[in-house]
Amino acid sequence: MIILSFSAVLVSGQNTDFIARLKTQLLLYRTQSPSQVIVIQTDKTLYRQGETMWMKGYAVDAITHSLSLNSLELSVQLSDSKGANILDGKFLLKSGVTNFNFTIPADLPSDVYYLIAYSPEMENGDISKIFKKEIFIGRPENLDMVPHLEFSKPFYPSDSKEAATLRIMNFSGKPASGKKYDYQIFCHERELLSGKGKTGSNGTGEIVFFTPPKQNGYPLLASITIYSGKDRLNLISKIPLSAEKINVTFFPEGGTRVPGILQSIVFEAKDLLGNPIDLKSDILDEQGKVITSTATIQPGIGVFNVQNGNNGKLIMRVISDPGKNQEIPLPALVPGGMSISLKKNDGQLLSLMLGRTPKSDSGKFNIVAVNNGEMVWASEFEIEDSGIINVPLVNLRSAVTSFAVFSQTGLMVANRLVYTGNNEFLNISSKSDKPIYKIAEDGEIRVKITDAKGAPVRAELAVSLADKSTFPSSSKAIESIQFGLNKAIHSGEPIEKISSPTLDYLLAGNSLNGFDWSQVLAMDPLKGTSRKSGAIRISGTVVDDKNMPVPYALVSLTSSSLQQFNAGSDQNGVFAINLPISVDKKTLTSSATDSTGKWKFHVKLNKSFKDEIVNYLNIVTVNNWQILDQIFQSNYFRENLDFFKARPSVKVRSGEKKVPEAYWKRYLTGSANLLDILKSIRSFEMSGNKIVFRGMNSFLQQDGALIVIDGQQMGSDASQLSMLNPMDIEDIRILLDPAEMGIYTGLNSVGVIEIKTKNSNSLDLKSPEIADLVKDNSSKLFTPEPIGESKYNLKTTLQWFPVLSTDAKGEATIPFRTGNIHSTFILEIAGFSDTKQWISGQMEIKVE
Fold first, then answer.
1. Which residues lie below 8 Å from residue 106, measured CB to CB, with a gap of 6+?
2. Rounded to whole angstroms, how far apart are CA atoms 569 and 681?
3. Per residue in 686-712, pLDDT tens?
4. Which has the closest alpha carbon to 629: 152, 138, 180, 169?
5. What's the whole-model pTM score?
6. Other CB atoms within 10 A of residue 284 CB
């Protein structure tokens, strides 16, 4: 319990000058901020090679939660875990919405891939804000294995030789003997050990590894490749180490630790892969005395109360594995700060308890409430030590509200999110015409959308009906639209059913997506622009002499005019900084040191946004292929034995000839040097910094070969090629015939290097190519695709409607026809109402 003396004097009325200015700043920020949330709805998340991936994309304003009209295009790509592009495309956005599809290559290896999406406006922002969704691609029936890496100890000690057991069984529950596998033990991208093995008659094999003598800031991982016929499965597991470093972030209620008061502090605990973990710890004072103990109340989230002194430091000491005895300092005390805690919510009033340092002089403050970037309530009050403010709930429009307290000088002294309970969500009811369906039977589902009062609602929905076994993962982006939260609330229950204390703690450590109070306060109402407008984003990685990323390094960028800009790298050695648009990126020099300035490191700048995406995806994540275990546990293949009989059939239309891919393209993914690719196409020599092709054309060597990128002549300096990422190359042609070279130059007889990139043109709405793109993606109708031979009628997606509109009664009908798969099918519905409210829901049907 928090016991405070209520000596506050609440004052009615508002500081009109401050409130009026803040309203203007919020309006400018809301209308000028390009912050967006991208959501891609797919018909499922497990696809087999050769299938079509059906998708609908939404670009949503991060602050207002309405469909964004700021973007005309959406860039979408399917990438592997190393960031290499598999498929990509740009799609026209109409009022923030588009629908499209990808055909998955038939020869793509079974693995976990990522669906990435972003708008042009997001290319100069935080890379973590792009849309990212796991997509599983593989044929489980062909793999026919359920692998587990079993560790003999909960946590392994440092500097020791250890072993783990690889256990594999097939879908019949029998040990899979004779399975060959390779394994590598690695830390970040450095391989420490490798080996081979084969499972015995009991379906097990051994994985040997050595634990590091000390923790270097990166997890120890085991990567195991298991072979199954012509296919393979890559299993990646984190080896549990007792010395693994954990990352803890603290969130005092109100945002800062306030001297002299009893205050609740929420903390978030994650492992080195960013996964939430359980933790037990003690809180120590400056003398090392334990003043309280705490533990997580759910994975990754905990809370404790602490009596803040007027000075001195507090430390959290971990007493559980992993990270035992690790010490993490709590945030420093902030004189003048204020705490905000939720006392009660009676359905009429929201009672907020405010706390200041005891014996503080009475002061006047302003408190404001913000919904969707708009101020919906404000009050001026006077307070000495502590007090309660009652906020009428009728003024608050959304379920999550941002409260902020400002001093008379406009300094923000406290802020936090609070759950109000004002849910105005739309309701989805759905009913099938039968409780259970037979195979190869027609069915129908009726959907109805109503508001909180039961009135019908018109809406445009995207609808998928797919096999439950094809949903190994799902996007958590819906919370970003419904509540605008920066971090999704992971719960199997709706937000209103989470216990009030738990929800309060979860929101105390959260923030609004796309909303930054510091940027709001930086808006100048007189100029109507932000002080940060016109910024360019520079990002990169700090590495040591062995090319290993350096966490928490200090980075310095210097322009040609000797302007200096500083940044810090994160735990993965990655940094990003916004510079004035007047700075020329090409003239920047960079350097990096450790926190003491003693050790110097190298800085690798990203040349493009796509380079940044590659680095973002190249941070290793665990891939346990839990979908295979889910399928086994559900007896899915025992009830659908036809999967093992059906074989993929690849049909080529009559008269079609598959154009063989240029041989040099296979080297693009693994190459970091475009000169090597050029040399594989045609030999050349370097004359200074210019390329001269061997043969008659190089006799006089008047100049190097002319470099043309996407139709633009770049000169003959070969350094222009270093600006290109090989994975962005669509085509390369070397022109040596004078007639061909004549379209670019009549003076250069050494040759022309013509390069076309995958994104060679900005989106030209009038171009024939874009017209074809729009036609292809709007006219192509969904057709359920069979798995393997069509005679078995195995289809995992029964229906996909990218656009399904409800009528005046709020109703819509979804027809479908079942295949020969015995399973549970999931109906997923998502979209926007005509009042711009997000709608989402699910239901299940059975096919027996």
1. 49, 50, 648, 650
2. 39
3. 887 888 876 544 444 457 888 888 877
4. 169
5. 0.79
6. 18
